[in-house]
Write a structure and sequence with these properties.
globular, about 15% strand, 11 strands, 4-stranded mixed β-sheet, about 50% helix, Four Helix Bundle (Hemerythrin (Met), subunit A), Ribosomal Protein L15, Chain: K, domain 2
């Protein structure tokens, strides 16, 4: 519900009023109510939402969630939260983490393969790096220890894979923008400054998708030691980082970035207002690209929400796979 919308209970239905237009909806067909900007909801509508186990989610002006109301008893949302805790001690927890990291690794490798396919004269060392990435991806596949003891190995292999990936990207952009690995807060170079800004946008998108799906963003599987942190957001974002990597890489490889887009800060570099404008335009274009996902044509960015719902439904036994792509 957007600016000026008014939601109330009318009989056994929800009624939404926007200006002079009234629409009614059955609570049995609603899984969540999302309120943004200056929308209004009555207490009897909140009560009916709780009776039907409908999440109420509040978003700020930027579309980021800042509050949530859900059914206090063991409805689907509470059940999902409980299953999130249980899966950590089960084999499915390890399977999910392995598959999730694997998917990130494959996305990274596919991007490097795509770039190399357009550079027949690329240094052989880049092809060697791609082979090393595949070796470490397979090591992740081979882990069979419980998640409680295998986390260091999983993160270690994934870390090496990502380091090789970013080394490869650095060698493929114009020489003046090459960088030495990932750096954050502050970035040590313009490329990382753009990546950090893009990843920040992605974190809010992922958190929103998890909350709408009924998942608890604080209950993670791999990043479990981050007390009072949104651990599942850190877990879930990994396969989608390429949605930022690609537009950032193309901005630099096509030399659309210049010194007017970033500025120095203490011990680093940050993207400025002009850079943000350039970055957001590029990201939105990439997010809105239509892809074939599972059995549907959807926007690139919509795979996150699709997978969040799939994971939630998997946890409560309504789906056989973790992600919609496998459906």
């Amino acid at each position: 519900m957007n600016y000026g919308a008014y939601l109330r209970k009318k009989g056994k239905l929800f009624e939404v009023k926007i200006d002079e237009i009234n629409k009614q909806f059955s609570p049995e067909k609603i899984s969540s109510i999302i309120l943004t900007n200056a929308a209004t909801i009555t207490t009897d509508a909140i009560q009916m939402a709780m009776q039907y186990n409908i999440d109420i989610i509040f978003l700020d002006d930027f579309g980021d969630p800042y509050g949530r109301v859900w059914y206090p008893k063991l409805g689907s949302t509470t059940y999902i939260r409980r299953k999130q805790l249980e899966i950590y001690t089960q084999g499915e927890g390890l399977n999910f983490v392995k598959k999730w990291i694997n998917r990130k690794c494959i996305n990274q490798q596919n991007f490097i393969k795509l770039l190399l396919s357009k550079r027949p004269d690329a240094d052989e060392e880049l092809h060697d790096k791609l082979n090393k990435m595949e070796e470490h991806r397979k090591k992740i596949d081979g882990i069979i220890e419980p998640l409680s003891t295998s986390t260091p190995s999983l993160m270690g292999y994934e870390g090496i894979h990502s380091r090789i990936y970013f080394q490869s990207l650095s060698e493929l952009i114009p020489r003046q923008y090459r960088f030495s690995g990932r750096s954050a807060r502050p970035a040590k170079d313009p490329f990382n400054a753009f990546l950090n800004y893009g990843y920040g946008i992605m974190y809010s998108r992922v958190e929103k998708a998890l909350i709408i799906a009924g998942l608890d963003p604080f209950v993670g599987l791999l990043h479990t030691d981050n007390y009072n942190k949104k651990s599942l957001v850190f877990d879930f974002i990994e396969p989608y980082r390429y949605l930022i990597d690609r537009p950032v890489f193309y901005l630099f490889s096509r030399q659309k970035v210049n010194e007017s887009h970033y500025e120095p800060v203490k011990e680093g570099i940050k993207i400025n207002a002009e850079g943000k404008k350039l970055m957001v335009s590029s990201i939105i274009e990439h997010f809105d690209t239509i892809i074939r996902y599972g059995k549907r044509n959807i926007k690139n960015i919509e795979q996150i929400q699709s997978d969040a719902h799939s994971f939630a439904n998997f946890l409560i036994g309504k789906k056989d796979s973790f992600m919609d792509e496998e459906g």
